Amino acid sequence: MPTSSFTSASSAVPCPVVESLDAILPEEPLLMMGAGPVPIPAAVAKANAIVINHLGGTMVKVIGQVKSMARYVFQTNSKWVLGVAGPGSAAMEMAISNLAWEGTRVLSIKNGFFSERMAEMGRRVGARVSTLDVADRAVASLEEIAEAIRRERPEIVTVVQGETSNTVWNYHLKEIAELAKAAGALVIVDAVCTLSTMPLEMDAWGIDAVITGGQKGLSSIPGVSLIAFSDAAWERVKRRTAPNAHWCLDASLAENFWHNAGYHYTAPVSGVLALHEALRLVCAETLEKRFARHLKCSLALQDGVAAMGLRLYTPEACRLNSVVGIEVPDGFSPADVCSHISRMHQVEISGSFGLPIVRVGQMGEQCREHNLFRTVHALGRTMVDLGVKVDLPAGVAALERGLSGGR
Ligand SMILES: *Cc1c(COP(=O)(O)O)cnc(C)c1O
């Protein structure tokens, strides 16, 4: 008797033999202390395990709360808050592709890897992008920015609040927005790294679009992001004649889901629920307390690293607190340090796109005392293991002084 064709059929592409996640993932989760993704609170993890209908009453209520909490975190009264199914980069692309098109004059203040990405996205929608190239480990002066605005007459200025790649903080954001506004340009701010870790006041500073991801300052999951447009920016979105070539990122289509309880694409419901919980925890903590926690933890970390004998990459004047860049000692590569600390101490930190540094994040749940002690200890031990001379006890003592207010 022939066996059934069902069991005897051999697939053209054979079924692969794979390992279960239990076999792949480490027994003890690694402590995520790099430049993102960051650890998520239990409430965020729990929400991320739930699937609900993407349309209907429950989702409408969740969306409404996400928008109102996001307005608090962005410090804006603008109606035009939307979520994005995608990484921080998708939110960047949503900002640029809705506000710029063929021939739009865009000035990108380029501090490094991520601010250059924004310029590249502008070029890809056909905009005439000029960049103000800023030296590594520095910010552009307001004179240089004013001069670039006079020269290029941009319709849009893009700037990053925290350039995560080289750990530079653009502390002039408010003044940059003023200069751009005075010249009639809209301002897009990339706050993927920094949102909810340090002040950003969208309305008071006159910013027209702010974007953020989930996996950094907000301590949510990667892949679900937020964007806010000012009224002026929204008017430009509505005024355009050629439709946005990015259908998924078209703000006018996204409005249907985020403001009219309708369908655009199936929203990543679990991720939106996770974001809801992340935002709710920010609201429960309050921005003021959250900023203070981030500042205290980051400065204590910086003290600890310096006291140990390692050098911080960025000068204090423009040093980003949300991600701390640490020079790798001569003779070692960032990968040497990152792989050792991960393997031997179960702590993940990051390299940085070819720069001779490792980066330790201070975003969201990373700014907890127990995480800091474990990280500083693991980093110091890694140096000792690699044969670099450091004073680990001095580093731990400085961390403790910083955290207990004795700085
Ligand atoms: C991480 C980061 C991005 C990119 O976010 P993805 O979620 O990786 O796309 C953009 N800008 C800044 C400043 C970032 O730190």
Strand and helix map with partners:
Elements: H1 5-8, H2 21-24, E1 31-32, H3 42-47, H4 57-74, E2 81-85, H5 88-99, E3 105-110, H6 113-124, E4 128-133, H7 142-152, E5 156-160, E6 162-163, E7 168-169, H8 173-182, E8 186-190, H9 202-205, E9 209-212, E10 224-229, H10 231-239, H11 251-260, H12 269-285, H13 287-308, E11 323-327, H14 334-345, E12 347-348, E13 357-361, H15 369-386, H16 392-403
Parallel strand pairs: 1-12, 3-4, 3-5, 5-8, 8-9
Antiparallel strand pairs: 2-10, 6-7, 9-10, 11-13
Helix pairs in contact: 4-12, 5-6, 7-8, 13-15, 13-16, 14-15, 15-16
The structure holds pyridoxal-5'-phosphate.
Features:
single chain; alpha/beta; Aspartate Aminotransferase, domain 1; Aspartate Aminotransferase, domain 2; 7-stranded mixed β-sheet; two-stranded parallel ribbon; 44% helix; 14% strand; globular; binds pyridoxal-5'-phosphate
Q: Provide the succession of SSEs.
A: HHEHHEHEHEHEEEHEHEEHHHHEHEEHH
- Tell me the fraction of residues in β-strands, as a range: 5-15%
Percentage of residues assigned to helices:
40-55%
Mean pLDDT across all amino acids: 96
Identify every distinct bound molecule in the structure, by name, code or SMILES: pyridoxal-5'-phosphate
Q: Judging by the overall fold, what is the CATH architecture of the largest domain?
A: 3-Layer(aba) Sandwich
User: How many domains make up the coordinates?
Assistant: 2
Low-confidence stretches: none
